[in-house]
Automatic annotation (TrEMBL):
Record carries keyword Heme: no
Organism, scientific name: Takifugu rubripes
Protein's recorded name: DnaJ (Hsp40) homolog, subfamily C, member 3b
Annotated compartments: Endoplasmic reticulum
Domain of life: Eukaryota
Entry keyword set: Coiled coil, Endoplasmic reticulum, Signal, TPR repeat
GO cellular component, one term: endoplasmic reticulum
Gene: dnajc3b
Length: 429
């Protein structure tokens, strides 16, 4: 030992031999469980040599054995300051910081310690990531530990639970099955397996029903999903989104708007929900709201279908400001041909010009009658109705070659006969 160090020790009133004695006594007393006595000797050792990182580390070990992690923390920090690459101290400090909830600081220590072949440090860092909310990084750290430890059922179960909470139910099922391969009687793994398997089966079945256009059955299945797993937001949000979609496809307009709005509140940045609510608004002839939803959806996703949906909603809005054949007949956009004809007959009889006496009343009735007749022509012709639903008025002269009258007369009558006497002939097809 160099002369400078010897001098320093004499100034403190302790020789190297005395320090070694305190350390040895501390070790023996610690092993015997006499923690207070051991701590006293380590205090003396630290006072005798304040530059020895191991002395601080050993005193920290006594504090930890006594359950005094807060007292151990300064000693571990001092040991690391004296020897920055002292990984054992970093690992211990990381554990304390993690328990105290200082996840970022704990992560920094674990990150220094981590080794590709050390499962314990990977598991500790994964725990930090979990508490920080970064589940994907936790999965990255935990995955190799399933191979680094024999019979690591705990890691397989935790991985399964992490994937499950992220909505990755197939991956979750794969990992929990690996746990059961190691021990088919593992109660925790088997319990989780039953839950994941049930939910996964319901989700797969629901999507198959949607693909088969069995929307009511799909809706029922997604409602069952919410009962199976009401506590994981991913699954409840997904179920609401797909129920919203199914109701739109079923043309259950008002219910669709309500459910889609609830789904939007749960998941405000979901472009699919905004798209589906926009379609529900279109069914309800609320074109301005549909345009707003499509625009908002495009803020989160620039898919071509959203651009096309916005263009169609804007066309429908423009047309509705002129003539909306559904509104003229007072029917919904989902009305079938029989409903359209029934509505037409009622309105045609009500607004037949022969029912009115004064010239002004006849002119007003004539205008309404022509609109009613036009609406019936468009909405009972599949090709014309398809064009109108796509945002194009098939009777608008601007959309026809060679122009034409402002108002078409699809029925065989001329309201402008001489003498002012009206004689209408129309067909109830």
């Amino acid at each position: 030992m160099d002369s400078c160090r010897r001098t320093g020790l004499r100034v403190l009133g302790a020789t190297q031999a005395e320090i070694e004695h305190h350390l040895e006594m501390g070790r023996k007393l610690l092993a015997a469980g006499q923690l207070a006595e051991a701590l006293s000797h380590y205090h003396s050792a630290v006072e005798g040599d304040s530059k020895n990182y191991l002395t601080f580390y050993k005193r920290a070990a006594v504090f930890l054995a006594m359950g005094k992690s807060k007292s151990a923390l300064p000693d571990l920090t001092r040991a690391i300051q004296l020897k920055p690459d002292f990984l054992a101290a970093r690992l211990q400090r990381g554990n304390i910081l993690l328990k105290q909830g200082n996840t970022q600081e704990a992560w920094e220590d674990f990150n220094e310690v981590i080794s590709p072949w050390d499962p314990e440090s990977r598991e500790l860092r994964a725990e930090c990531y979990i508490r920080m909310g970064d589940l994907q990084k936790a999965i990255q750290d935990l995955t190799p530990t399933t191979r680094l430890r024999n019979d690591n059922r705990a890691a397989f179960l935790k991985l399964s639970m992490l994937h499950y909470s992220l909505g990755e139910h197939h991956e979750s099922l794969n990992h929990v099955r690996e746990c059961l391969k190691l021990d088919q009687d593992d109660k925790e793994c088997f319990s989780h397996y039953k839950q994941v398997k049930k939910l996964s089966k319901q989700l797969d079945s629901a999507e198959e029903l949607i693909q088969a256009e069995s929307y009511q059955e799909a809706l029922d299945k997604y409602e069952a999903v919410m009962k199976t797993e009401p506590n994981v937001p991913y699954y409840t949000n997904l179920a609401k989104e797909r129920i919203c979609f199914s109701l739109v496809k079923m043309k259950s307009t008002h219910e669709a708007i309500d459910v889609c709005s609830e789904a939007h509140q749960r998941d405000p940045r979901n472009a699919n929900i905004l798209r589906d609510r926009a379609e529900a608004f279109i069914l309800n002839q609320e074109y301005e709201k549909a345009v707003e939803d499509y625009k908002e959806a495009l803020d989160f996703d620039d898919k071509q279908e959203l651009k096309e949906g916005l263009e169609r909603a804007q066309k429908l809005l423009k047309i509705s400001q002129k003539r909306d054949y559904y509104k003229i007949l007072g029917v919904s956009r989902s009305a079938n041909k029989q409903e359209i004809i029934k509505a037409y007959r009622k309105l045609a009889q009500q607004w037949h010009p022969d029912n009115f006496q004064s010239e002004a009343e006849k002119k007003e009735a004539e205008k309404k009658f022509i609109d009613i007749a036009s609406a019936k022509e468009v909405l009972t012709d599949p090709e014309m109705r398809q064009k109108f639903d796509a945002g194009e008025d098939p009777l608008d002269p601007e959309n026809q070659q060679g122009g034409g009258r402002d108002q078409p007369w699809p029925f065989h009558f001329d309201p402008f006969q001489s003498g002012g006497s009206f004689h209408f002939k129309f067909h109830y097809n």
